[in-house]
Amino acid sequence: MRIPEEADFASPTHGPRVSARIGLWLGIAFGLCFITGLISHGIQHPAAWFTWPSRPVSLYRITQGVHVTSGVAAIPLLLAKLWSVYPKLFGRPLVKSVPHALERGSILVLIGASFFELLTGVFNVAQNYPWAFFFPTAHYAVAWIAVGALLVHIAVKLPVIREALTRSEEEPRPTTGALSRRGFLLTTGVATGAAVLATVGGTVPWLRNVSVFASRSATGVPVNRRAEAAQVSTVDESWRLTVGDVEFSLAELRAMPQTTADLPIACVEGWSASATWTGVPVKDLLERAGVPAGSDVRVESLEQGGLYRSSTLPGTHTADPLTLLALRMNGEVLTLDHGYPCRVIAPSRPGVLQTKWVSRLEVR
């Protein structure tokens, strides 16, 4: 049986002009996804030089929404890109030169890393983890590999890309039943738009009813980790909140001046939801405990285990009057699943850092 050759693939959907245009869109999607992913990683694992503002209050909601949406958009774009170039796999000889070998090697790494990032990202959005490794660490590490391979690939193919994007020529007539170049690009755009629309409602509330994969909850605010999973079953009258060297009972917290604010919870999985929160500003609690304004604070939870049983509130957030130790949500006392007796709600923070069942604020 004869092995196909590159010349056997005459469809106008295969070629540098199609590949370059889809590659441009894919590069934009990858770039947005990578940059916003770095932001999310930096907030959760901040370096000494990293700071993240507390305003606007929906800033993290926007950046993480862009992260997930651009990742979803990259899926049909990557598949279309592979379709446009796969005849190159049948080119002979397999390796023509050192640059050609470098190009093929970078493509292999890029494809593997890209599929790993996109597939694990989709599972993360679905909160399904059928693997043994820790998702955030692996996802972050492989993102650097994917971007490195992408930059090598672009550097090698830059002359071809430049010529394909600037060259103007009449589109060849497709063979009977074949899709034209414009038709293929249009189909790719429609598929990408449909994928985005199916998920973007998790970030854009007014699109939630048409986004079939957007998170929904009867209370308006989904719960990722319930009290049962956190091994928090009851909170009795002996509960006290410790702030520095001072203790507050729940009755004392309720008697303090309260602040009510509309703030979103934005989760790393891409969903976000707004609610009306009522509670005591953290800055007021720190002031009563004699803690200097703008201090970094470690928040401890009643949760017995788990990677996110504690978090650190940086000074930019503890000084913000909208960073609350919330006691009520939408006018009702917090349920146990939502963090009763109190939880942190800080503007422009990932949901995993909005610690529930708070027991201590420790100055760092």
Automatic annotation (TrEMBL):
Signal peptide region: none
Stored SUPFAM superfamilies: Oxidoreductase molybdopterin-binding domain
Annotated ranges, domain Oxidoreductase molybdopterin-binding: 235-363
Transmembrane segments: 22-44, 64-86, 107-126, 138-162, 183-207
Domain of life: Bacteria
Keywords: Membrane, Transmembrane, Transmembrane helix
InterPro entries membership: Mopterin_OxRdtase_euk, OxRdtase_Mopterin-bd_dom, OxRdtase_Mopterin-bd_sf, TAT_signal_bac_arc
GO terms for MF: oxidoreductase activity
PANTHER family: BLL0505 PROTEIN (PTHR43032:SF2), PROTEIN-METHIONINE-SULFOXIDE REDUCTASE (PTHR43032)
Protein known as: Molybdopterin-dependent oxidoreductase
Organism field: Umezawaea endophytica
